[in-house]
From TrEMBL:
Pfam families: ABC_tran (PF00005)
Biological source species: Oceanobacillus iheyensis (strain DSM 14371 / CIP 107618 / JCM 11309 / KCTC 3954 / HTE831)
UniProt-recorded name of the protein: ABC transporter ATP-binding protein
Domain (ABC transporter): residue spans on this chain: 7-231
Family annotation (PROSITE patterns): ABC_TRANSPORTER_2 (PS50893)
Length: 296
């Protein structure tokens, strides 16, 4: 059986004058899920998404969406792209925008109300976009991008301006879309939120993509605060653990969860008390630091 890739990039490059932003990248995504495109400001995430969606032409290479070339505009019946809010018209209402998109996709007007309710913007649907807040515009962009129930959805910084409850709503909507078979590729700087929705991270660095399965890099660290630090240090070293950090919070060690109880026993048998134990699971933030160095 031939499996048609949801997204396929073949040797794609993009140059602005002499600046090589995307450099002969290859990528195949062949099953539904969420992929996060991550990299520092100015690295080329928007450029790449724009090339994929044929908003700007790639300088070189081939791009296939749902098995079709991105030059075949028909494919965009099933593909959506949530761009930044500069694509919105201030003098039109949310309803006007959605009506326009529904007309293009030949969807009935009832879908406008349905999607507005779904993303929580029904109370300001008829207001002019010029009077929207940043978060309200983001809700509208989300509504526009999902109104056609896309099979493939690209999102450039979808969390911009969202308050915590809107971010939770966005997360739930993304997870629901994936359950229904949609593939989502989103760029975001919000690594904590990315960790909540996916383990598939694609780093963009020096024009190249690095695909990472976060699960394979996840480490559990425990911070132990003990009544006797010197004896504690010796216990860790004797058991073969390296203390990663020693601060007023305690001593941080990488330890598999299955070894924790045994180690607690060792500590208790040695006669010292455990004042506190905290657990930390490394996420995209730590992975990001290995590729790009510490943030801020
Ligand atoms: N139209 C353009 N003409 C010339 N250079 C451009 C153009 N658009 C973007 N660039 C340059 O390409 C590089 C990548 O920009 P891009 O907006 O794709 O980065 P990004 O990763 O999306 O950044 P951010 O995280 O800040 O949104 C930057 O150096 C930018 O200055």
């Amino acid at each position: 059986m031939i499996v048609i890739a949801v997204l396929k990039l073949k040797e794609v490059s993009k140059k602005y004058k002499s600046q090589q932003v995307i450099d002969e990248i290859n990528l195949t995504i062949d099953h539904p899920g969420i992929w996060a495109l991550v990299g520092p400001n100015g690295v080329g995430k928007t450029t790449l998404l724009n090339c994929i969606c044929n908003i700007i032409p790639a300088s070189k290479g081939e791009i296939y969406l749902l098995g079709e070339s991105n030059k075949n505009y028909q494919v965009f019946k099933q593909v959506s792209y949530l761009q930044d809010n500069t694509v919105l018209f201030h003098y039109l209402s949310g309803y006007d925008h959605l009506k326009f998109v529904c007309d293009i996709h030949k969807l009935s007007k009832s879908r406008i109300k349905e999607v507005a309710e779904y993303v929580g913007m029904d109370s300001y649907l008829h207001k002019k976009v010029g009077d929207y807040s940043l978060g309200m515009k983001q809700h509208l962009l989300l509504a526009i991008s999902i109104v056609n129930r896309p099979k493939l959805l690209f999102m450039d910084e979808p969390l911009t301006g969202l308050d915590p409850s809107s971010a939770i709503l966005m997360r739930n909507i993304l997870l629901e879309l994936v359950e229904q078979g949609t593939t989502v590729i989103l760029s975001s700087h919000n690594l904590a939120e990315i960790d909540r929705v996916t383990n598939n991270i694609i780093f963009l660095k020096d024009g190249k993509l690095v695909e990472v399965d976060r699960l394979k890099h996840m480490e559990t660290q425990y911070i132990f605060k003990l009544s006797d630090e010197d004896l504690g240090k010796r216990l860790f070293t004797d058991a073969g653990y390296t203390i990663q950090e020693n601060s007023s919070n305690g001593m941080k060690v990488i330890m598999e969860e299955s070894n924790l109880n045994q180690f607690i026993q060792n500590i208790q048998n040695s006669g010292i008390s455990i004042l506190d134990i905290q657990k930390e699971v490394s996420g995209s933030e730590e992975l990001y630091e290995t590729y790009f160095g510490k943030r801020g």
